[in-house]
Amino acid sequence: TAASQSVQTTNLDYDQAEQQALQTIIMKESGGNVNARNGIYFGIGQLSPTLRARYGGNSTDYQDQLQAMKAYIQDRYGSAQAALAHHLQYNWY
Questions:
Q1: How far apart are CA 44 and CA 16, in angstroms?
Q2: Would you say 65 and 57 are in contact if contact means Cβ atoms under 8 Å apart?
Q3: For position 6, what pLDDT does the model report?
Q4: What are phi and psi of 42, to 5 degrees?
Q5: Residue 68 burial class via C-beta count within 10 angstroms: exposed 0-12, middle 13-18, buried 19 and up
Q6: What distance in Å separates the CA atoms of residue 48 and residue 66, rounded to the nearest whole number?
Q7: Which runs of E-coded beta strand occur in 1-93?
Q8: Which whole number is the average pLDDT over 35-51?
């Protein structure tokens, strides 16, 4: 039906927007470098040791770091788009 197609399109658009927001944060934080360091912050999402202890992401495996970053974003912001909005306002997330 047209209604279910509309819902599917909306979900696709949301998923795409989430992926774009996540990639934007990664590029701002680390340029996608799994070895990126800034003081105590590490990896593609530049998570602190406390956040890495909670969510993982201590390895140099991109998927490991990505999953940790996504879990942190979900808990703190609810979505990557909300995390990106915060990042754009405050230059951190």
A1: 19
A2: yes
A3: 62
A4: -140, 145
A5: buried
A6: 14
A7: 37-38, 41-42
A8: 98
